[in-house]
Amino acid sequence: MVKYEEIIAKALEKATEIDEKELETYIEFPKDSANGDYALPCFKLAKTMKKAPQMIANEIKEKIEIDESYIEKVEVVGGYINFFVNKENLVKEVLNEISRQDEYGKAKIGEGRNIVIDYSAPNIAKPFHIGHLRSTVIGGALSNIYKYLGYNVTGINHLGDYGTQFGKLIEGYKMWGNEYDIDKDPINELTKIYIRINEECKKDEKVLEACRNNFKKLEDGDPYCVELWKRFKDVSLKEFQRVYDLLGSKFESWNGEAFYSDKMQEVVDILEKKGKLVDSQGAKIVDLSEEGIDTPCIIIKSNGSSTYATRDLAAILYRARIYDYEKALYVTSYEQVLHFKQIFTVAKYLGLDEKYVKGLKHVPFGMVLLPTGKMSTREGTSIKLEDLLNESIERAKEIIEKKNPELEDKDEIAKKVGVGAVIFNDLANNRLKDEVFDWDTILNFQGETGPYIQYTYVRIRSVLNKVEELPKIEDVDFKVLTDSYSQEVLKLIYNFQNILVQVTDKEEPSILSRYLIDLAKAYSSFYNENKIIVDDKKLQSARICLSYATGKVLEKGCNLLGIEMPNKM
């Protein structure tokens, strides 16, 4: 498909003698279509050209030569040069491309480039609560989009299956195991033990010390501790899989923290050899004050056990060697910003090629909050994700029963709508914002929600079902889609691949979510202003093709976010 930015940049290069690749980075998309489809702000050229931006804009406009079959008009407004795409050409480019491609917007940008994404990572023996939802769906969306752009992606579920929490559970099980039926209701019973042992730890320092010693025994291979740990892990993974099945989540690797238990000594040895390990109150730390980080990175605790940092550093070594990554993304809460700042700094001392250290990137996100505030497993205020997803499905089913009681496959459609609503709500806003969970917003079919996009898609399917077959592209009159409503939809469809690239540039799935809302709104405006099924067959064919193209992009965009589309609602 023709790249209008490249055409504009080449024409600008001839007029300015500035490299077209540099100029392409300056080109913007005006918010108001009255200001063109593309714009060059000349403020960025004022310093080097030593002239006022408006003067530069006028001079460039006089010199620029551009093919009118692609750009029909060039205007200067203030310090901006505005470019207007040839409307008929845009229709032709978009509809031809849609008709040729099974997967519109797919690319080979990432061919031969490896990406590792560490996401989801629930803690074994704890409920899979809604606090883990964000990591799971943000990481899943990024994984899907990177793959669609041609990257070789390894999604890793770095399970929290090691650490002092298991020392606590083991101690709690020793003390009260006969009071709880682990086999009948494993996660809930283990959670009760975990909450109870945390209360004991607050009251008695000796209990906390016993918990820490249990974890050291686990690391040392104590048979009793290892047997309990395996049992806790097995029952947890069965519970987690039900949630992943609902969300449609898949991973290339399930290597959790425990996987690196025999790989941590290498990290310790390298840091000791390089003189980076310092003794501090019986513990071994890396002093990062010279790197501008006041808090030291603890590598070995005073009782000899490892830390999150030790295991994460071992994972970096392993992933660099096995996956040869260009980027290694860590999708976790912004509460862990300091932790990743520390380990990424310490990673510089491990003797890795610079590209691997440079490729490490934390992708932080805000918390999922209840109206009453933050959740906590140890305080007993978390909500299980499986319960939340099932409630969303039930609420969606109730809405369907009221609005369309005769609908076939209500259960399957309710599942797509309910789960899709939860996923879209999570991905709708900038990931750094905290999210307060509000049912009234999530399942609203009129607002900027997942169900609204699904409803728009179903409306398109209904239109397409009224024609026997799709028109052939060679029979479409492109001129009839040059009105403002059609053009608004076409411009958005044209920009789909660029939106996906923006997502990967910023690791921000909400860019795609907002785009899909804009496309659904633009199509709704087009639909409300134009009859699709009309006597004029040329006009009908063109509008059918535009509807088909919109539905294709809405479906693919939602699928990339992890949302399934119903054909009826």
Shape: globular
Helix content: 40-55%
- Helix count, DSSP H or I runs of 4 or more residues: 22
Can you tell me the CATH class of the largest domain? Alpha Beta
> Which sheet architecture does the biggest sheet show?
4 strands, parallel
Which residue ranges are poorly predicted, with pLDDT under 50 across at least 5 consecutive positions? none
**Strand percentage:** 5-15%
State Rg: 28 Å
Question: Can you describe what's shown?
Answer:
- This protein has about 575 residues and is an alpha/beta fold.
- The protein has three domains: about 5-85, Gyrase A, domain 2, CATH 3.30.1360.70; about 115-275 and about 305-370, Rossmann fold (3-Layer(aba) Sandwich); about 385-560, Isoleucyl-tRNA Synthetase, Domain 1, CATH 1.10.730.10.
- Helices cover about 55% and strands about 10% of the residues.
- It has helices at about 5-15, 20-25, 45-50, 55-65, 85-100, 135-150, 165-175, 185-205, 205-220, 225-245, 265-275, 310-325, 335-345, 355-360, 385-405, 410-425, 440, 450-465, 485-495, 495-505, 510-530, 535-560; strands spanning about 40, 70-75, 80-85, 115-120, 150-155, 275-280, 285, 295-300, 325-335, 360-365, 370, 435.
- The strands form four sheets. A four-stranded parallel beta sheet has the order 5-4-9-10, with helices on both faces. Strands 1-3-2 form a three-stranded antiparallel beta sheet. A three-stranded antiparallel beta sheet has the order 6-7-8.
- α6 (about 135-150) links the parallel β4 (about 115-120) and β5 (about 150-155).
- α5 (about 85-100) packs across α22 (about 535-560), α15 (about 385-405) packs across α16 and α19 runs parallel beside α22.
- It is globular and about 80 Å long.
- The two termini are about 35 Å apart.
